[in-house]
Amino acid sequence: MTKIKTIGILTSGGDAPGMNAAIRAVTRAAKFNGFRVMAIYRGYRGLIDDEIVEFTNKSVSNIIQLGGTILKTARSDEFLSQEGRQKAYETIRKHEIDALVVIGGDGSLSGARQFAVEHDFPIIGLPGTIDNDLYGTDTTIGYDTALNTIMECVDKIRDTASSHERLFFIEVMGREAGFLALNSAIASGAEAAIIPEHATQFDQLAEFISRGFRKSKNSSIVLVAESKETGGALGLAERVKVEFPEYDVRVSILGHLQRGGSPTAHDRILASRMGFAAIEALLDDQRNVMIGIRDDEIVYVPFSKAVKIKKPIDDKLVETLRVLST
Ligand code: F6P
């Protein structure tokens, strides 16, 4: 393997709180080990367009507490083509970058995997997404902050839901995964979570209604994961109006506020550990792995597993919500 002297770093896909803490950790750990650090702006698009600046330790001062990503981010259509990836490779050669650290979610790490194979190039991935949908890691950078943000919003909505004795469907992000919906439902004492993982298994709305909340409670909060399969919060509310008109139903779609804000201590520590581990992985001759965390231990997860295997929902959590919301 070529001796690594210069490391490129980029953030890609949806931003997530804690990405800056990860950028800081990768940069500082790399500098500590004598590497040059080249910061690539705007994800893969910046790699194609040669938007690259050398970073020092000072470049990452005072950012650990910031949400978003100082490197900016993008979803690059051009990188999906072989020509786009070839252009990206030429930029890498021009700057003599020997390895990349990519911080992003499912799409970003799939891109990293393809690029690494096509150009026989070492890449280490860090799971940066609020969705928590990457296989092989218990949590992803940004997930805990988003959960806390959702919980605070639900607490506020409950005040009005209970005053008006209404049924609220609160839609949260997650792409096609229900981790945010399920765990924020538990954290906020909600009555149910409607998640894409169960969309084809049973009618989640009918099951929730059949539990007869009207008998014991004067308001209900249901967390709904965004999803084409379930119709999202608006689709469910439409169904309720027709099928269960006795409910006074309202919808709240939390949207992009879930992605913002200062990262929690959990996300800052996770990002710092993972960023440090990314450099250790390169020193250890690892390539094409995502850094994960399992049972509080850092693990290396091959890209092929991280992006190809569907991360399962924990049935015990589903049962916990069901029992505690009775
Ligand atoms: O993957 C992160 C995420 O926030 C998803 O939860 C959501 O579906 C998507 O990104 C939204 O993307 P955009 O900001 O491009 O609309």
CATH architecture annotation name of the largest domain: 3-Layer(aba) Sandwich
Let me know the largest β-sheet.
7 strands, mixed
- Runs in which pLDDT lies below 50 for 5 or more consecutive residues are none
Percent helix = 40-55%
Largest sheet: spatial strand order: 3-2-1-4-5-10-11
- Please compute the radius of gyration using only Cα atoms: 21 Å
Counted by DSSP, the helix tally is 12
Top-tier CATH class of the largest domain: Alpha Beta
- The structural class is alpha/beta
Which overall shape is indicated by the principal axes computed on the Cα atoms?
A: elongated
The tally of strands reads 11
- Encode the helix/strand succession as letters: EHEHEHEHEHEHEHHEHEHEEHH
Oligomer: single chain
Q: What distance lies between the first and last C-alpha atoms, to the nearest angstrom?
A: 58 Å
What fraction of the residues are assigned to beta strands by DSSP?
Answer: 15-25%
List the ions, cofactors and other small molecules found in this model: 6-O-phosphono-beta-D-fructofuranose
Overall pLDDT metric: 96
CATH topology (level 3) name of the largest domain: Rossmann fold
| Total of domains | 2
Short description:
The protein is 42% helix and 18% strand. With 326 residues, the protein is an alpha/beta fold. α1 (19-32) packs parallel to α10 (265-283), α5 (143-164) packs across α6 (179-187) and α6 (179-187) packs parallel to α12.
